[in-house]
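Regression test case RT-17, inverse folding.

Input:
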């Protein structure tokens, strides 16, 4: 039977099965603030636009279908350069800054998680805080890749900045890194599709307490009650 809860000093929220806000048997924990969800959606939209325009530039069949190459190039360049804007705006959010600190902080438990993941060990427990070691590596790698892509892309777009030899090298790095980014993003989407509760956390901002304790058992020790109340 549904029951109401009132936990002072706790970030827990409870929802009914239909998401009406009524208390349910399973508690829910706030995982992402509105600002964080906006940053993720905006970044995903820009990344998707950048990838789609890149495909129209490099795949002959799509290039012929779409045409208007100059327009596609312009869309590709600006969607790439604007990728940093959601991040910069997100810095105004205290919750976003707190999660950036979590993503940049590695502990001994992260080494345990990575070793188990690399060995495909399904027996060893994989300890994780709010973000597991795989998410931390992914976030750091993608942030660096975006910066390199933006830098090499700028050299390709503004041709007068450097000599031809350096533009050729920039093109080489840009193209091959783009393929690596596409592969990593495909793996990221695949992992998201395999975890409905993680997707729900990004969509609604909250996850079930059972999921949090199973997938991120050390999160409770990171002071999430205090940080997750500071949404904006």
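Golden output:
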């Amino acid at each position: 039977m549904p029951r109401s809860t009132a936990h002072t000093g706790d970030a827990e929220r409870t929802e009914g099965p239909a998401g009406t806000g009524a208390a349910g048997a399973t508690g829910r924990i706030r995982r992402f603030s509105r600002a964080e969800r906006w940053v993720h959606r905006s970044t995903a939209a820009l990344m998707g636009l950048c990838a789609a325009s890149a495909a129209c530039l490099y795949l002959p069949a799509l290039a012929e279908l779409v045409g208007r190459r100059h327009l596609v190039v312009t869309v590709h360049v600006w969607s790439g350069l604007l990728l940093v804007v959601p991040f910069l705006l997100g810095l105004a959010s205290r919750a976003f800054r707190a999660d950036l600190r979590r993503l940049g902080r590695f502990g001994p438990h992260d080494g345990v998680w990575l070793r188990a993941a690399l060995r495909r060990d399904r027996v060893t427990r994989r300890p994780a805080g709010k973000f597991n070691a795989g998410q931390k590596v992914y976030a750091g790698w993608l942030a660096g890749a975006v910066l390199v892509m933006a830098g090499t892309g700028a050299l390709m777009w503004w041709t007068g900045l450097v000599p031809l030899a350096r533009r050729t090298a920039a093109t080489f790095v840009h193209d091959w890194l783009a393929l690596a980014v596409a592969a990593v993003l495909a793996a990221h989407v695949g992992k998201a599709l395999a975890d409905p509760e993680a997707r729900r956390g990004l969509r609604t901002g909250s996850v079930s307490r059972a999921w949090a304790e199973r997938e991120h058992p050390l999160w409770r020790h990171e002071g999430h009650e205090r940080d997750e109340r500071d949404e904006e």
